[in-house]
Amino acid sequence: MTQRALVSVTELERSSVVANNTMNRERGLTGVNSYARELGVDPLAWLADRPGAPAWLDLCSGEGRALREAAPALPADAVLTAVDLVGPLVPRPAPPALEEVVASVSAWTPTRTYDLITCVHGLHYVGDQLGLLTRAASWLAGDGLLLAHFDPDSIRRADGSAAGRPAVSALRAAGFTYDSRHHLLTLRGGRTVRLPFTYVGADPAAGPNYTGQPAVGSHYA
């Protein structure tokens, strides 16, 4: 097996596979190309059933279109946070409930918990995918919901061999469920998660994943 050269977070985020990613930029809230379709859950309907002011964090949010569409239908004191490495390509006035954060999801940390956390096809472009999932689990409200697309084939050992199966097993042991048909991880209820993996670097030349688009390989010891 030929071992690929792994890169740091900074190098990864400057790579063409991440910088030129358009996977999630225009996806809306409902309809054919939507969060509701991809997640199997209508985020707006789920948030509307929450008591009080609901809070939604969307990681790798692209243009933030889904959150913009949800804002008018939610209470005025709702909290919608969109985090993306690039953010909206054309700056537009944001609804009062929406905070658009341009930052690396690998470094950003919120100051509150959220009722709903989503990452729609975003983990495919993150180096330490397992690290982000463990951090996001701690950002979730006690009875909140986390939904994230995940490709086990992208999880590799330091030598490049497959580590997807033990990764899924560890995630399930920590409380996640994984739907292999839809490549979807679900976690209900915030918690502290520890996984037996140490991140060692990313491979931006891993090639296309199940979406058909170039994605990142995440390597762990």
Summarize the structure.
This protein has 221 residues and is of the alpha/beta class.
Please work out how many helical segments DSSP would assign.
Answer: 7
Q: State the share of residues found in helices, binned by percent.
A: 10-25%
CATH architecture name? 3-Layer(aba) Sandwich
User: How does the helix and strand content classify structurally?
Assistant: alpha/beta
Separation of the first and last Cα atoms: 17 Å
Give Rg in angstroms: 17 Å
Oligomer status? single chain
CATH topology: Rossmann fold
Description:
The chain is α/β, with parallel strands linked by helices and 221 residues long. The protein has a single domain, classed as Vaccinia Virus protein VP39 (Rossmann fold, 3-Layer(aba) Sandwich), CATH 3.40.50. It contains seven helices and ten strands. It has helices spanning 9-14, 16-19, 35-39, 43-48, 65-70, 129-138, 164-173; strands at 55-59, 79-84, 98-102, 114-119, 140-149, 155-157, 177-179, 184-188, 199-208, 214-220. A seven-stranded mixed β-sheet has the order 3-2-1-4-5-8-7. It has a three-stranded mixed β-sheet with strand order 6-10-9. A hairpin with a 5-residue loop joins β9 and β10 (214-220). It is globular.
